[in-house]
C-alpha cells in the first residue's frame, strides 16, 4: 500500500537466529548469587522460630518447658508497654517523616539553588553515621538554647523516643520520595502551569496523585526504620522500664539480664508486627493505585 511505513522492529533472535533465546546457565548463576541472600534471611527467621519452640530447662526448678518462657515474656507488662510505645512512636515518627520528606524531596528533585550539594550531603548524614553517634549529636544539641529549654520534656522522655526515630526515618523517607519525584516527567508540570495552574495547584493536583506509590513506600520505610531503631533511642531517650522502653531496647535489656526466652519473644513480636504492617500497607496501596 502506498505510503505504508516499513516495520523496523527487529528482535534479537532475528539478528542472531542461531542464538538461543534463553541462557539457562547465566540465569542459574544469577539465581544462585541473588538467592543466597534470600536464603540467608529465611534461615535466620527459621532459626529464631526454631529456638522459640525448642525445649529449655528452668535453672531454678530443673523442669523442662516448651514455649512457656516465651509466652510468659509476651504476657509481661513491661513487654506490653514497650510494644504499645513502639507502635505509637513509630507511627508518629513515620507521619512526621513523610510530612517533612515530601516537600524536601520535591525541592531537591525539581530545583537548582545555591548550596544544594551541601543540603544533599546533610540529608545523608543520619544514613551514613553510626546510630549511636546520631543519638550523641541529639544529646549535644539539647545543651544549647533554644533546645536546652525543652530538655526536661524531651531528653530521656517519650518525645525523645519519637525525635530519635524521626531523625533517622526522615532521611530514608526523603530518599524514597526523591526517587518518586524524579520518575514523574517534568513536562506534566510545565503543561499544567502553561494552562494557568499555579505552582501549588500543580503540586497538589498533578504531582502528588502520581507520587502515591512513593509516599506509600516512604511511609512504610520510615515506619520500619523507626520500629527497629536502637542506637539513637538508647543514647538520647534511654531505656527506662515502663517509660522510654521500646522493643529494640527491650532486646538489649533482656540480653543484659541473660533472658534468652524474653529476647526470642521480642524478636518474634517484631517480625510479626513488620509482616502485618507491610501486608496491610501494600494491600491498601494496591487499592489506591489500582
How does this structure look, described?
It is a single chain. By secondary structure, the chain is mainly α. It contains 14 helices and two strands, in the order ααββαααααααααααα. A two-stranded antiparallel ribbon has the order 1-2. The longest helix is centred in the first third of the chain and has 34 residues.
The level of helicity is over 70%
Low-confidence stretches: 286-290
Number of strands: 2
Largest sheet: 2 strands, antiparallel
First-residue to last-residue Cα separation: 41 Å
Please state the average pLDDT score. 82
What strand order characterises the main sheet? 1-2
Strand content: under 5%
Structural class: mainly alpha
Shape: globular
- SSE string, helix = H, strand = E? HHEEHHHHHHHHHHHH
Task: Offer a few descriptive terms.
mainly alpha; disordered C terminus; globular; 290 residues; 14 helices
Secondary-structure blueprint of this entry?
Elements: H1 12-15, H2 24-53, E1 56-57, E2 64-65, H3 68-74, H4 77-110, H5 116-128, H6 131-141, H7 147-154, H8 158-182, H9 186-194, H10 199-210, H11 212-227, H12 231-236, H13 247-257, H14 260-289
Helix pairs in contact: 2-14, 3-14, 4-8, 4-11, 5-8, 8-11, 9-10, 11-14, 13-14
Structure summary:
The protein contains 14 helices and two strands, in the order ααββαααααααααααα. It has 290 residues and is mostly helical.
Amino acid at each position: 500500500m502506498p505510503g505504508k511505513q516499513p516495520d523496523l522492529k527487529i528482535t534479537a533472535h532475528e539478528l542472531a537466529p542461531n542464538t538461543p533465546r534463553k541462557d539457562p546457565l547465566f540465569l542459574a548463576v544469577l539465581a544462585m548469587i541473588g538467592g543466597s541472600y534470600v536464603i540467608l534471611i529465611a534461615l535466620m527467621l527459621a532459626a529464631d522460630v526454631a529456638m522459640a519452640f525448642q525445649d529449655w530447662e528452668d535453672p531454678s526448678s530443673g523442669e523442662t518447658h516448651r514455649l512457656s518462657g516465651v509466652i510468659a515474656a509476651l504476657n509481661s507488662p513491661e513487654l506490653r508497654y514497650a510494644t504499645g510505645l513502639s507502635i505509637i512512636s513509630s507511627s508518629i515518627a513515620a507521619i512526621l517523616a513523610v510530612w517533612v520528606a515530601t516537600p524536601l524531596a520535591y525541592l531537591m528533585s525539581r530545583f537548582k539553588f545555591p548550596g544544594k550539594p551541601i543540603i544533599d550531603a546533610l540529608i545523608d548524614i543520619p544514613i551514613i553515621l553510626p546510630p549511636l553517634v546520631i543519638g550523641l549529636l541529639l544529646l549535644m544539641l539539647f545543651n544549647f538554647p533554644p533546645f536546652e529549654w525543652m530538655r526536661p520534656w524531651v531528653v530521656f522522655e517519650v518525645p525523645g523516643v519519637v525525635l530519635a526515630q524521626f531523625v533517622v526515618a526522615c532521611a530514608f523517607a526523603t530518599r524514597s520520595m526523591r526517587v518518586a519525584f524524579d520518575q514523574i516527567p517534568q513536562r506534566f508540570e510545565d503543561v499544567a502551569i502553561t494552562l494557568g495552574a499555579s505552582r501549588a495547584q500543580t503540586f497538589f493536583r498533578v504531582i502528588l496523585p502520581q507520587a502515591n506509590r512513593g509516599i506509600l513506600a516512604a511511609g512504610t520505610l520510615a515506619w520500619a526504620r523507626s520500629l527497629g531503631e536502637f542506637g539513637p533511642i538508647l543514647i538520647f531517650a534511654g531505656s527506662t522500664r515502663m517509660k522510654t522502653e521500646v522493643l529494640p531496647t527491650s532486646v538489649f535489656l533482656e540480653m543484659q539480664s541473660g533472658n534468652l526466652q524474653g529476647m526470642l519473644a521480642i524478636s518474634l513480636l517484631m517480625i510479626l508486627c513488620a509482616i502485618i504492617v507491610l501486608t496491610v500497607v501494600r494491600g491498601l496501596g494496591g487499592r489506591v493505585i489500582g
